[in-house]
Amino acid sequence: MENQQKTALITGATSGIGKELAKLFANDHYNLIIVARSQHEQENTAAELEIFGIRVQTIAKDLSDMEQARALCAEVNTPVDVLVNDAGMGVYGLFKDNDLERELSIIHLNICSLVILTKHFVKEMAVRGEGKVLNLGSVAGKLPGPWQAVYHATKAFVLSFTTAIREELKDSGITFTSLMPGATDTDFFNKAGMQNSKVVQDKEALSDPADVAKDGYNALMAGADRVISGFKNKAQVNMSNLMPDSNVAHTMYEQQKPVEQKQQQQIP
């Protein structure tokens, strides 16, 4: 019960890995501030989490809007002991064909809002001399990703950024951890329009979000700098480290391209 008075703020907390992380914090008696776009989904999630006997505050914000990200910082008047930047999105397709505004929204959410929230709450943590930050990266951050070029690039930023500020603040009492899952069984692929991608077709190959969240939570509490969730994903990253980036990009192109396209190309 030592964490009874501590508070974790989690973005993207109403589904997938974010929701599973919220359950883990709640089980350890952290009070929660959960942030997502849908007030209705937040209320349902809060009702599930409150059975752990904790306080749950809900704040509805679209963090792809920079003004709403700044407003979130101003609205939180409780000391945040743990910041979890989980909210993120992608879009599937060739870069030349994808809608520019949607890709800019991905950059705003996956990068800009993460920087805004991290800067605000880390400044407060630094004054207190303690705190924890968990940033949702991805193995995508280590792998150039055709068919998801912008998403993969944003996750490369998250990994580099988190590693750099961890070094800057290594004596501050604040820890920074990157959670790097691979393809996970969440609504991400549906929202990104990836249902026709080869990587999504093999449901058995997708990680369980509860397992991913547990890996991330344990790494965060241990103060680890990063964790790649899942043996297969660790192996993929290790293999990519031995290959030229151009070869890695080609491999990812083949893994992520539409199933229909592959079948059509095999027709004589």
UniProtKB/TrEMBL annotation:
<dbReference type="Pfam" id="PF00106">
    <property type="entry name" value="adh_short"/>
</dbReference>
<comment type="similarity">
    <text>Belongs to the short-chain dehydrogenases/reductases (SDR) family.</text>
</comment>
<protein>
    <submittedName>
        <fullName>SDR family oxidoreductase</fullName>
    </submittedName>
</protein>
<dbReference type="InterPro" id="IPR002347">
    <property type="entry name" value="SDR_fam"/>
</dbReference>
<dbReference type="InterPro" id="IPR036291">
    <property type="entry name" value="NAD(P)-bd_dom_sf"/>
</dbReference>
<keyword id="KW-0560">Oxidoreductase</keyword>
